[in-house]
């Protein structure tokens, strides 16, 4: 088992960079986004480069990610971990170097002391925001200016802080245990109800460590479940 999240993600991409690794649906907006391993890797690299080259982030820095389950949230989380930036638990505000959120949570984010703040509307086709909350930069606009390959100055280590109180080795172990609890294994295509599984250990890390791909559904319409499971060749549904 991989003992850092970037290593687990790199292994997932290497299996086949061309096949869908994360497919996202939002039944409230009709949005669908399909990201192959290579495409998600590019977004992750751009985010890591934004942190390191754009903000001067260094291993040991911290980030607050106040985003719902979404493919952009995956890019932000994996980008932070690739750059050695630890993601703090979202429940208790604390000082961080960088914060990511949506405009709807800008007031909540004000309780977090942060050096840099980014907002995203999580819009279809990764469209930028038309109006930004005061004090925020647009994540989508800013991240696109950075390169789609990332080479860390120093590799992330298993004992480096990762998610909440867990280091990378602990986060990977917890994700592997959670995959076993959920019945997710290698080669599975897992449909996940985002509302029922908001923890990134469930919707992102467990499938990643298990060697599975994800169909992540926000505002899931039960009437569409059977047809979607068939069309996406789903092998496991987590509702």
Automatic annotation (TrEMBL):
Top-level taxon of the source organism: Bacteria
InterPro entries: AMP-dep_synth/lig_dom (IPR000873), ANL_N_sf (IPR042099), Rv3268 (IPR017523)
Pfam families to which the protein is assigned, alphabetical: AMP-binding (PF00501)
Annotated ranges, domain AMP-dependent synthetase/ligase: 11-88
NCBIfam families associated with the record: TIGR03089 family protein (TIGR03089)
Full protein name: Uncharacterized protein (TIGR03089 family)
């Amino acid at each position: 088992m991989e003992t850092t999240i970037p290593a687990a993600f790199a292994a997932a991409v290497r299996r086949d960079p061309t096949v869908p690794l994360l497919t996202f649906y939002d039944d409230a907006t009709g949005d669908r986004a399909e990201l192959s391993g290579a495409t998600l890797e590019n977004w992750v690299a751009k985010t890591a480069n934004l942190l390191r080259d754009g903000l001067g982030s260094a291993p040991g820095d911290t980030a607050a990610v106040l985003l719902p389950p979404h493919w952009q949230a995956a890019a932000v989380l994996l980008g932070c971990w690739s750059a050695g930036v630890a993601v703090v638990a979202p429940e208790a505000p604390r000082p961080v170097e960088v914060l990511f959120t949506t405009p709807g949570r800008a007031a909540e984010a004000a309780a977090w002391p942060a050096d840099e703040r980014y907002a995203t509307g999580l819009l279809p086709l990764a469209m930028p925001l038309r109006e930004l909350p005061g004090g925020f930069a647009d994540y989508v606009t800013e991240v696109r200016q950075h390169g789609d390959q990332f080479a860390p100055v120093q590799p992330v280590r298993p004992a480096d802080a990762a998610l909440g109180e867990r280091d990378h080795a602990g986060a990977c172990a917890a994700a592997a245990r959670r995959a076993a609890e959920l019945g997710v294994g290698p080669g599975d295509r897992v449909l996940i109800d985002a509302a029922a599984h908001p923890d990134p250990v469930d919707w992102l890390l467990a499938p990643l460590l298990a060697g599975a791909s994800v169909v992540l559904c926000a505002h899931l319409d039960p009437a569409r479940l059977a047809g979607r499971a068939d069309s996406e060749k789903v092998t496991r549904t987590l509702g």
